[in-house]
Amino acid sequence: FQYLKRFDRGCNLDTFRYEALSVEGSPAECLQVFLLHCGIVDPSWAELRNFTWFLNIQLRDCEASVFCNPDFVQDTLNGF
């Protein structure tokens, strides 16, 4: 949710890192953002769960990757 919220605002996601146990927004706002980005017009709860689960794994792996670390990569992969 935090990544999607910042993406909608046009923030630079390269410098953002999720902080465990941090809370932003309301449950209603979170659901609205997931519905907007999941890619299905009328998703079931299972489809929303799968979307959030997959997105979470991808973002966790991205944060752990040295190739996605702006301090390591600097501007060598700009736009990649």
Automatic annotation (TrEMBL):
A Gene Ontology biological process term: ubiquitin-dependent protein catabolic process
A GO molecular function held by the record: ubiquitin-protein transferase activity
Source superkingdom: Eukaryota
Keywords linked to the UniProt accession: Ligase
Example of a GO cellular component annotation carried by this entry: membrane
InterPro entries per UniProt: RNF213
PANTHER family with a match to the protein in the record: E3 UBIQUITIN-PROTEIN LIGASE RNF213 (PTHR22605:SF16), RZ-TYPE DOMAIN-CONTAINING PROTEIN (PTHR22605)
Protein name: RN213 ligase
Organism: Edolisoma coerulescens
